[in-house]
Amino acid sequence: MAEIRLAPGLTIHYQDFNPQGSPTIVLLHGLGASGDSWQLQIPALTGEGYRVIVPDMRGFGKSTYPGGGNNPNIMAQDLICLMQLLRQEKFHLVGISLGGTVALQIVLTRPDLVKSLLITNSFAKLRPKRLSLWFFYGIRLILVHLIGIETQAKYVSNRLFPDPGQKVLREKFREQVNQSNPRGYRSTLRSLATFDVSSRVGEIQTPTLVITGGRDTVVPPASQVELAKLIPDAQHIFIQDAGHAVTVEKPDQYNPVILEFFQNYN
Fold it and tell me: Could you tell me the CA-to-CA distances from 198 to 19, 104, 228, 232 in Å, in that order?
């Protein structure tokens, strides 16, 4: 575990696995989570010889929050700076949910840095057609602003992991969310409502794979289909019996897919 101070009040915590490995894979976590959410992917990736860098984005996990606004573009700038300080000139980039929006911003800002792009359960623009999803987003905003982050974490974890046998996953997710800076969480959540790079993702020339959990109840699969169609030559794979947290629900299906993708672009 390590950390780098990027600016006054801003220290980014990151984990660096197999630092002598090559090439490098960067894993970006979802909203409220931290780099620890990738624990089921790291052994599979390092076992194939990759170096794996897993940051906590500003305001989440052990990284600090300096105040002000927070959004995918700001986080992308943080991570570009981090990778430059770590002297990583080219790397595979993976993001889930919020991390996917940050990954899109990185590749749009600095395409020269990214060998391949893997987006999981994320979007270029979040405009669901179902009223139930708007209700879900609205309740999250109300809870995190008026009641507190712990209540919001419980609400979201129950939606992500509704099965009785997923109690451990619910508890681990709540622990990660409760580490978040409340102001940073609120600002980031608000920013996702207006995030929109749908007019720009057609510029992406980086090899791209979009992975969708077929039972995702947080980011509509239709939004993910749209994203894959907008990116030239993007591949799109469904893991049908997985939800939004596909990386921890179905690592036995997710990990072989990502390994095969990376092997094509080493």
Answer: 35, 10, 11, 12
Are β-strands 10-17 and 24-28 bridged in parallel, bridged antiparallel, or unpaired? Answer: unpaired
Q: Where do we find the tokens 């992500």?
A: 160
Count CA within 13 A, CB hemisphere, residue 159: 17
Contacts (Cβ under 8 Å, ≥6 apart) of 31: 97, 98, 185, 188, 189, 192
The pTM of the whole model exceeds 0.90: yes
Q: What is the chain's pLDDT, residue by residue, as a tens digit (266 residues)? A: 799 999 999 999 999 999 999 999 999 999 989 999 999 999 999 999 999 999 999 999 999 999 988 999 999 999 999 999 999 999 999 999 999 999 999 999 999 999 999 999 999 998 766 655 654 666 566 566 666 678 777 877 877 888 888 999 889 988 998 899 988 988 998 898 889 999 999 999 999 999 999 999 889 899 999 999 999 999 999 999 999 999 999 999 999 999 999 999 88
Residues in the chain: 266
Residue 180 CA to residue 183 CA, distance in Å, equals 9
Which two three-digit tokens encode residue 126? 């979040």
Instruction: Compute CA distances 44 → 47, 51, 143, 228, 230, whole Å.
Output: 5, 11, 37, 25, 30
Give me the domains of the chain, ranges plus CATH numbers: 2-127+195-263 (3.40.50.1820)
